[in-house]
Amino acid sequence: MKPSSSLQNSNVENLPPQVLRLVYKEVSDLAADPPEGIKIYPSDEDITELHTAIEGPEGTPFAGGIFRMRLVLGKDFPAVPPKGYFLTKIFHPNVGHKGEICVNVLKRDWKAELGLRHVLLTIKCLLIHPNPESALNEEAGRLLLEDYAEYAYRARLLTEIHAMTGPGGTSGLPQDPSDGPQPKKHAGDPTKRLAAPGAASVAALGNGANGACTATTTSSNAGGSTSAAGKKKADKKRALRRL
């Protein structure tokens, strides 16, 4: 019988038994006691691939979203760090267009003793504190530095479309089934939707897009509601063409 593609790409057979035991214990511990805001979905077929779902942190443009992600442990783990990929489309400086994640703990700052829990917490922190200096998405990095209101609007828009349940949202569907290794614009003035960043800044900006949309809907009369909904739909279409 021909082995399945998931098993063909698995690193289980390449890892020493003692490493597999440690990985199994750590994954079991994570599943039983996951970090706050993170859900763990271990694979029954391949312990070297860990699927997770990260809640978008409050006070950020990602709040309210659920972002699916996976960690892939290579044959040299733990001497070499795992690779991380967002499966949910996200507008973030440190996430590439195919979902690859750029963070120091998965590169030069990796130490074998850090463990998978530390990796997951670091990636969640990246949603709160992006690092434009090591941007994989250069446009997101540039906007974060030069025009935070536009960056927050774009990030919020993709969160609503791809990371939320309900009409128009894909609730964390993958960016593309072929992305990563396979184991087993908005038109208009964004400042009208988001307040400019200031001393109180990130929390207000994180929820600004939702607040503005809610205010627009509830303050309109019957005719105005239809007009506002049409304008919002047109804005989203224009924004998506720019992404």
Structural notes for this entry:
- The chain is α+β, with helices and mostly antiparallel strands and 243 residues long.
- The chain has helices at 5-8, 17-32, 115-128, 138-146, 148-162, 202-219, 222-242; strands at 38-42, 49-55, 66-72, 83-86.
- Strands 1-2-3-4 form a four-stranded antiparallel sheet, with helices on one face.
- Strand 1 and strand 2 (49-55) form a beta hairpin.
- The longest helix has 21 residues, at 222-242.
- It starts with a helix and ends with a helix.
Derived structural class: alpha+beta
Identify the overall geometry: globular
| Strand segment tally | 4
Number of helices: 7
Order of adjacent strands in the largest pleated sheet: 1-2-3-4
Q: Distance between termini?
A: 44 Å
SSE sequence, one letter per element = HHEEEEHHHHH
Biggest sheet descriptor: 4 strands, antiparallel
Oligomer: single chain
**Content of β-strand:** 5-15%
Low-confidence stretches: 1-8, 172-229
- Helix proportion of residues, in percent? 25-40%
Radius of gyration: 20 Å
Mean pLDDT: 75
